[in-house]
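Support request from a user on the community tier.

User writes: "When I paste my structure tokens into the form, the page sometimes reloads and wipes my input. The last time it worked, I copied everything first. Here is what I submitted, just in case something in the input itself triggers the reload:"
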């Protein structure tokens, strides 16, 4: 171990929700280990004034590559004490099963499911060694609450993230590690989402919460050891509706929106 300081490791930190979570953690004085794909601007991000009062380092790895996933875990375990792990990197696509190509489906599963599980598994002993409260935060989605046609693999992968987190939380009861899972609604982060939301109905547009606000609510509640987080009042109302309506109705309402959007 080259340093005794503790760090929060955050995947998918270069942009979108991850970048906003990094700002929230920096405000609270956490030292950060930011992870994203090589060459995507982490070198510039770490120079931003928001990070001047903490220690921030960046690690560039492709989390869809199993060898890199194991190499990252080994590097972190050998060199850093972690107090927090945030599995934020994730991807999806809005395509019918016939249109989506196998490589894309595999990437979604590798990033959303395999990377989240393996990183957590490899880094858990490190978090358990921390002398204080440690946190694991996994990023699921509102999409995890219903199957969605024309998006099939993504909501299923985010359901995995939800169930994985809740099971692990139970397993770690009585230890120093607290697991939380957050379920953001749609956020205008990347271009694919911006384009899709244009074609979705009014209800979907009402569900939009900024990545800044989602990050703020998520970090605040994670630090209060909340298990399951839904950022934004409107998304909570949506969740309530989805939990009382039978699944065949939620699938048909939500999938109808995506079908319309995929035809436009
Ligand atoms: N946006 C939404 O509407 C929404 C809604 C609910 C949940 N979510 C979830 O929130 C999380 C963040 O979403 P976002 O919209 O902020 O995403 P985003 O803007 O597309 O950013 C994704 C982040 O993940 C990183 N990443 C992608 N592929 C990677 C790989 N193979 N290896 C390492 N890092 C990789 C990206 O790094 P590079 O810059 O290096 O590519 C980027 O930092 C995801 O888990 C997503 O599923 C998003």
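"...and here is what came back when it finally went through:"
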């Amino acid at each position: 171990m080259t340093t005794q300081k503790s760090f929060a490791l955050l995947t998918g930190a270069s942009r979108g929700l991850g970048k906003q979570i990094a700002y929230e953690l920096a405000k609270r004085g956490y030292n950060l280990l930011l992870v994203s794909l090589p060459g995507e601007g982490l070198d510039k991000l770490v120079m931003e004034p928001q990070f001047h009062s903490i220690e921030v380092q960046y690690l560039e790895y492709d989390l869809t590559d199993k060898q890199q996933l194991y190499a990252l875990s080994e590097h972190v375990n050998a060199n850093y004490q972690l107090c927090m792990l945030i599995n934020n990197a994730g991807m999806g696509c809005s395509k019918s099963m016939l249109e989506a190509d196998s490589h894309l489906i595999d990437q979604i599963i590798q990033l959303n499911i395999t990377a989240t599980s393996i990183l957590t598994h490899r880094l858990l002993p490190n978090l358990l060694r921390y002398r204080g409260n440690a946190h694991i935060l996994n990023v699921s989605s509102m999409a995890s609450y219903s199957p969605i046609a024309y998006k099939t693999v993504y909501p299923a992968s985010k359901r995995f993230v939800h169930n994985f987190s809740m099971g692990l939380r139970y397993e770690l009861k009585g230890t120093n590690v607290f697991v939380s899972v957050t379920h953001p609604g749609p956020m205008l982060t990347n271009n694919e989402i911006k384009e899709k939301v244009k074609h979705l109905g009014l209800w979907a547009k009402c569900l939009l919460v900024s990545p800044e606000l989602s990050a703020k609510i998520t970090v605040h509640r994670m630090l209060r050891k909340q298990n399951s987080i839904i950022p934004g009042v409107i998304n909570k109302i949506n969740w309530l509706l989805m939990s009382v309506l039978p699944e065949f109705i939620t699938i048909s309402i939500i999938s109808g929106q995506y079908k319309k959007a995929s035809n436009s």
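Agent notes: The reload is a front-end session timeout and is unrelated to the input. The pocket of NAP is lined by residues 11-18, 36-37, 40, 62-64, 88-92, 111, 139, 141, 184, 186-187, 189-190, 193 (CB under 6 Å). Residues 102-129 form the longest helix (28 residues). Escalated to web team.
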